[in-house]
From TrEMBL:
Coiled coil: none annotated. Pfam families: p53-inducible11. This is Tumor protein p53-inducible protein 11. Keywords: Membrane, Phosphoprotein, Transmembrane, Transmembrane helix. The keyword Ligase does not apply. It is a multi-pass membrane protein. GO terms for cellular component: membrane.
Length: 189
């Protein structure tokens, strides 16, 4: 009995077979977008993560703004702690009738916020920078509301108080702008 020769083996080249490659990638779970909108090229990069997503694309001037805010908060806090009566007189244009303890407590709170800002200046983590900007924005919004209510109660509108209100609106706008731009997802290239 003569052995029948087997036909030559036909190798399937999965690299060139597009349907086979797509099926394999779908089974492995790579090639499609994940929850963060990223496309992983291999299972290894999917498991290890992509270091590019941790790199923060900062808006222009963000670090300078945080530095400026940290300095202003620190100076205002030290002024409120050291010279509470003079700070009140400059803003509201009248003698303070209450005790200076409340203004010193205000100075302590601002000093705490300035420490958060100084920390946000040196971090590279996007979440910490966002929380820093959000806490700054909340402070400006609350100070605007409190100052407005106080001026309505006093029945006067001195120029330093108007300047303070306008500066708070400006600072709130800039801070929220940086917060918004930092939170946006970068465009895929």
């Amino acid at each position: 009995m003569a052995a029948k020769p087997h036909p030559p083996l036909m190798k399937k080249h999965s690299q060139t077979d597009l349907v086979s490659r797509l099926k394999t990638r779908k089974i492995l779970g790579v090639g499609g977008e994940d929850d963060d909108g990223e496309v992983h090229r291999s299972k290894i990069s999917q498991m290890l993560g992509n270091e590019i997503k941790f790199a923060v694309r900062e808006p222009v001037g963000l670090r300078l703004w945080i530095l400026f805010s940290a300095v202003v908060f620190t100076v205002m806090a030290l002024m409120a702690l050291a010279f509470p009566n003079q700070l009140y007189e400059v803003v509201f244009d009248q003698e303070q009738t209450a005790t200076s303890v409340s203004i010193r407590l205000y100075g302590g709170a601002i000093l705490s916020l300035s420490l958060i800002l100084w920390n946000g200046l040196y971090t590279v983590e996007k979440a910490i920078i966002q929380w820093t900007l959000l806490s700054e924005a909340c402070y400006f919004a609350i100070q605007f509301l409190v100052t407005s209510v106080t001026l309505v109660e006093l029945g006067s509108l001195p120029n330093p108080a108007i300047l303070l209100l306008l500066s708070r609106v400006f600072f709130l706008t800039v801070t929220l702008s940086y917060y918004y731009h930092l939170g946006r997802r970068p465009k895929k290239i």
